[in-house]
Specification:
18 helices, mainly alpha
């Protein structure tokens, strides 16, 4: 009998491990598509005849759908079944990738990217909720989230490398077509590895809350994207941002009165999660902006070709892996709060190092040190932040918790890129006497110093508030 029990236990552990591998590969694919088009945009423009404004929507359509629909689909995963919503999202993402890869007209590519974002918004929070439920113990959950966070960060980094390689050696179409085997494997394998899970209590979707919440997120993301392209005072940016505030106020008023709200206010006011999500907002703003600004700086100021600029990011992936390996150990040894404060401060130090890169610096002496320190800090931070932000989630609301975290990351990234790129541009345009390279470097340096301040502010928030927010039993000590 003991032998049978041991075998059954080993089989269960093996299935959980295999499920984690499948879920992480899908997340790698989803995050890859956040930025995989960046290097390929000129080739897409030439092949399909994009105008300048239309080309931006190859990127923006994905972010708009992904960021705007996360809350809705996260809650739907809790109510309809997390495995079902995940598989539907992956299938939708795969079909949209095929449309993008075969596109013959600009509108076909933009429409495909929007549907890709919709599929991501379904699959990503459902996958994170499945991991949270597959690994309920605090130590094993921290390890699982560490792997998840590291794979996601690698996908963000490798998107630039893969895009440069495929565009230069084959065709931009392959950056979409390579998604098909991963999507197909996930759809075939996951039903055999993960049982269905949904909220134990029967509930209906809060339709007014869903409309208002989704509308507020879509308007916010759209307004931030427009602000990044034009300016904060432009009507096409200011109008959606004002609308987002109005819809958000209406959403809070409706949720406060709803019998079964889309996002219970008690869920948002749980202080431990609230502090973790607030720190994630600041961290995401800094890191998304850093990735954007550094890629531009490598190519326009330091003179790297697209493929070389992508390859220059490879050590960043190695640093992420090292930080990820250390993260659960740091939390176990130091506690959640000290580990997060330390990792945020390491990230801020790396950003300050990167801000000092001069136009005549070599890669090894100029770019690499700051990139490695930043990546190690990022690898340390992301898994612990994920654990903290999902603290206390249960069978009833794991999908919602995952969706809130993903929404915070996307909104923080959009805010960071819009604000810090605008600051860098304004600083550059205000310096005209010492050459364009000097002015561009000053703008880049100023924006990264601001990013470092944001991360340091996140460390201060965690140090001051996370220790006062009591986590449920079983969470690593803070």
């Amino acid at each position: 009998m003991t032998s049978v029990s041991t075998t059954a236990g080993a089989d269960a552990v093996g299935r959980r491990g295999a499920a984690l591998v499948v879920l992480c590969f899908v997340q790698f694919m989803l995050v890859l598509d956040d930025n995989v088009v960046s290097v390929a945009l000129p080739s897409m423009r030439d092949d399909l005849g994009f105008g300048a404004a239309g080309l931006a929507w190859v990127v923006n359509a994905y972010f708009l759908a992904f960021g705007g629909l996360l809350l809705l689909f996260g809650r739907m995963a809790d109510l309809l079944g997390r495995r079902r919503v995940f598989l539907t999202g992956v299938a939708l993402f795969g079909a949209a990738s095929l449309v993008c890869g075969l596109a013959q007209e600009p509108w076909q590519l933009v429409a495909g990217r929007f549907v890709q974002g919709e599929g991501s918004a379904m699959a990503s929070p459902a996958a994170l909720a499945l991991i949270a439920l597959l690994f309920p113990g605090s130590a094993e959950r921290a390890r699982a989230f560490g792997i998840w966070g590291g794979i996601a960060a690698l996908g963000d980094t490798m998107g630039l490398v893969i895009s440069g390689a495929l565009t230069g050696l084959a065709s931009w179409r392959w950056i979409f077509l390579i998604n098909l085997p991963v999507a197909l494997a996930a759809v075939v394998l996951l039903p055999r590895l993960v049982p269905e899970s949904r909220a134990g209590r029967a509930a209906r979707l809060d339709v007014p809350g869903a409309v208002l919440g989704t509308g507020a997120l879509v308007a916010l993301v759209y307004g931030l994207l427009r602000a990044g392209e034009s300016s904060w005072g432009d009507a096409t940016a200011a109008g959606p941002l004002v609308l987002a505030v109005v819809l958000a106020v209406a959403f809070v008023a409706v949720e406060a009165r709803a019998a079964e709200p889309l996002v219970p206010l008690s869920f948002l006011s749980f202080r431990f999660r609230a502090v973790a999500n607030g720190a994630t907002l600041l961290f995401s703003a800094a890191m998304y902006a850093m990735a954007f600004l550094l890629m531009v700086h490598l190519q326009t100021v330091l003179g790297y070709r697209p493929l070389a600029a992508g390859l220059a990011y490879l050590p960043y992936g190695a640093g992420i892996l090292a930080g990820m390996w250390l993260s659960s150990r740091a939390v176990a040894r130091l506690g959640m709060r000290p580990a997060l404060v330390m990792s945020f401060l390491i990230t801020a130090a790396g950003l300050l190092l990167l801000s000092g890169v001069a136009p005549d610096d070599g890669y090894a002496s100029g770019v690499l040190p700051g990139m490695l320190v930043t990546s190690i800090g990022c690898g340390l931070s992301l898994p612990a932040l994920t654990v903290a932000a999902l603290t206390g989630t249960t069978e009833e609301n794991a999908g919602l918790g995952s969706a809130v975290l993903s929404s915070v990351q996307q909104i923080g990234g959009a805010v960071g890129v819009a604000v810090l790129v605008a600051l860098a541009t304004r600083r550059r345009d205000g310096l005209t006497v010492e050459g364009s390279q000097y002015a561009a470097t000053e703008g880049f340096s100023f924006a990264l110093v601001v990013a470092a301040v944001l991360v340091a502010l996140g460390a201060a928030v965690i140090a001051a508030l996370l220790g006062r927010a009591r986590p449920p039993e079983g969470t690593p000590d803070v």
